[in-house]
Design a protein that fits this description.
With 208 residues, the chain is of the alpha+beta class. Helices cover 17% and strands 27% of the residues. It has four helices and eleven strands, in the order βββββαββααββββα. Strand 10 and strand 11 form a beta hairpin. Helix 1 runs antiparallel to helix 3. The protein is globular and about 35 Å long. 42% of the residues are buried.
């Protein structure tokens, strides 16, 4: 069944040229303000997000406290050593989305990403463990912010419920400076219409 773009989703286009990415960088196992480039940070779920749950990436054996989200981050998207392998592989896919030309706000970037050789199933193959049953992702949504800052949400979205709450992975990228910062966060069920608010909390709050 063909996906019908909802009132808050606009299709993205591909353009020539490199658009760098937006992200949040933070610490993992070391204090904020550390000079480490890569790591992780746990932040408390904002009250406005309701009962949103966070999850850890495959390969991360450190338990996530209830009521928190774990942000895996790097100051340089091309240098991801130290992050879980699942996050490293996703960072490589996000780098391929550099040429996307996005409009302000939330939009469906799936078709444009496919033109660049990146599909939702590509993310699934590297982002999750093989154990357990899980709905296969079919959409790559994008959020374009100020100064070209952007985020991507990869999830399975039903054609007849484009704003239904779904689990997925949220990617932040920062093009305002070089090297390009990047982060990934595994999220429980969220509605696509809240992605701008999610981006403001996840991408901008964590700092190294």
């Amino acid at each position: 069944m063909r996906f019908e773009v909802s009132r808050f989703l606009k299709p993205a286009n591909v353009t020539i040229g490199i658009i760098l990415l937006m992200g949040a960088v933070s610490s993992g196992g070391f204090a904020m303000g550390s000079s480490h480039n890569n790591g992780q940070m746990d932040i408390q779920v904002p009250a406005s997000f309701g009962d949103l749950e966070g999850y850890v990436a495959p390969g991360d054996s450190e338990a996530l406290p209830t009521g928190f989200l774990r942000i895996y981050s790097t100051k340089d998207i091309q240098s991801v050593a130290g992050l879980p392998e699942a996050v490293q592989a996703q960072a490589a896919l996000v780098r391929k989305l550099d040429p996307l030309s996005l409009q302000s706000g939330i939009q469906d970037a799936t078709d444009a990403a496919v033109q660049l050789g990146v599909t939702p199933s590509d993310f699934d193959r590297v982002a999750y463990s093989s154990a357990g049953k899980r709905a296969k992702s079919n959409r790559i949504l994008a959020v374009e912010g100020k100064n070209g800052s952007r985020a991507f949400f990869v999830a399975r979205i039903a054609a007849d419920q484009p704003d239904g709450a779904v689990p997925g992975i949220f990617h932040c990228v920062e093009q305002a400076q070089l090297p390009v910062a990047y982060s990934a966060t595994y999220l429980g069920k969220i509605a696509p219409s809240t992605l701008i608010e999610i981006k403001e909390e996840i991408c901008q709050k964590p700092k190294m």
